Amino acid sequence: MNTLKREDIIEQYFDKFGTGQKSMAASPQSIRYCANLIRENGISSILDCGSGLSSALFHFQFKNVVTVDDDSFWAKMTQDFVKIVVGKEISISTLSNMMNEKFDFIFYDYGDIETRIYYFKLVIFMTKKFIYLDDMHISYYYDYVTHILKNISHELIICTEDEFGRYGALVKIG
Questions:
Q1: What distance in Å separates the CA atoms of residue 117 and residue 141, rounded to the nearest whole number?
Q2: Cα 120 from Cα 122, distance rounded (Å)
Q3: Could you report the per-residue pLDDT of 124-168, keeping only the tens digit for each?
Q4: Strands 65-68 and 92-93, how do they pair?
Q5: Could you give the 3-state DSSP secondary structure of residue 110?
Q6: Residue 153 three-state SS
Q7: Any idea what the CATH number is for the domain that residue 26 is in?
């Protein structure tokens, strides 16, 4: 019987990668928010952009998750962690290898902010319903995202904030 809980994974993640990761990794609050949204909306396909804590928790809670990362070293560390802690073998590709796919939900925490800006239009194209944008507290990223979204039917909701003052936003497409 598997008694592993979401909180156990979070604790093991920061034990392995260090508490310094708390200000870098996706916040547990944002992942909880997204997991609830996925359940409430019957999401059937999830793209996890940027491997790490989000990957471990999404693969633990859901079966229909694809993870991508632009950093092969970090992707390998995430694969190893998910295999050991969650008990799943996952493959991690790059976003450019998924260009022709569509997903109901995308968790977007891919690379540095410049990399996210570069791929943002592609991510919009790949989204059927929702994009969760991490790190929207960074003003130039927020400005870029809102500028690009001006001509797209959407709703932007600032939805999570953590102890570091970081926040994420949900984009509902359509």
A1: 7
A2: 5
A3: 999 999 999 999 999 999 999 999 999 899 999 988 888 888 899
A4: parallel
A5: coil
A6: coil
A7: 3.40.50.150
